[in-house]
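hi! just following up on the protien thing from before. the input was this:
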Amino acid sequence: INAEYMGKEEADKQALEQQRLDEASRLAALQKQEREMLEIRKQPLKKYLMENVIPVMTKGLIEVCEVRPDDPIDYLAEWLFRHNPQIDDDVA
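and the predicted 3d structure came back as:
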């Protein structure tokens, strides 16, 4: 009876371990799928930022570095308002 019990206990341990491995595999597959989906979804936003925000922001930050105002955040905000390409395009 003791050997039979030990064999059943070992089989249960192996079944639990296999179940844990299966669950870990499913979780890894879901995480990979989610990462791939996020990579695809971020492309339009990344393109927009690279084309419209980063160039203007870079010029503003360079201006802040050159001028070194007492309040650089406020200076940058005002600079961005004054150099908004959408307003410049609308006015022209």
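The mean pLDDT is 89.
DSSP finds three helices and no strands in the chain.
cheers
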